[in-house]
Structure prediction request, 194 residues.
Amino acid sequence: MPTKTEAALRRFSWDLARRAERTREIKEPAVEAALSEHIAGRYESAIAAITAIPEAERKAGAWRVLGHAEHGRGEYDAALAAHLRSFRLHEESDPEAASDDQVNMAAVFISMKRYDDAWAATEKAEQLAPDSPSPWLPRISLLNLQGRRNDLEDNLRKLISEQPDFVSSSRFRDHLEQDADFIGVSEMIAQIGR
Prediction:
């Protein structure tokens, strides 16, 4: 049975995968199969499906799914390397996808308790796609994990003001309800809304 954090990571991975599908990034059958395996928590099978694709032929979507699967099984260095490969492929051509890659790296850094690196990745993600709500997730997680309540409250106020649709989205609500990194955040949002 997956932990709440693992379940939240899978949902977040699935959300990013759906966005990638909209841009036709994940259209190869092997990558789709790997994504399904990852979402089901079968990380070894997901990794096997991706590594069966020769490295030179892997597109960004394959590297991204590999990064999620490696993260899921706790192989953080391998996860970072895969997400970095995806980022390098997106960096010049697709700033929003590159931003998502930085968010993925931030999530891995958080798992490694490398909070300064996670913060830097979050800032880079925001620079790449200033209107994207994705960088808010690791930022809120970091502030909450570090017990920086005043900064967290300030950021939540800004998030509510700038991204009200995201705050009310099921994607964000799932993190509030099920991700251990977000314990207490829902109550703070309720107090801010009063």
The chain has one domain: 4-193. Confidence is low (pLDDT under 50) at residues 20-24. The CA atoms of residues 156 and 189 lie 7 Å apart.
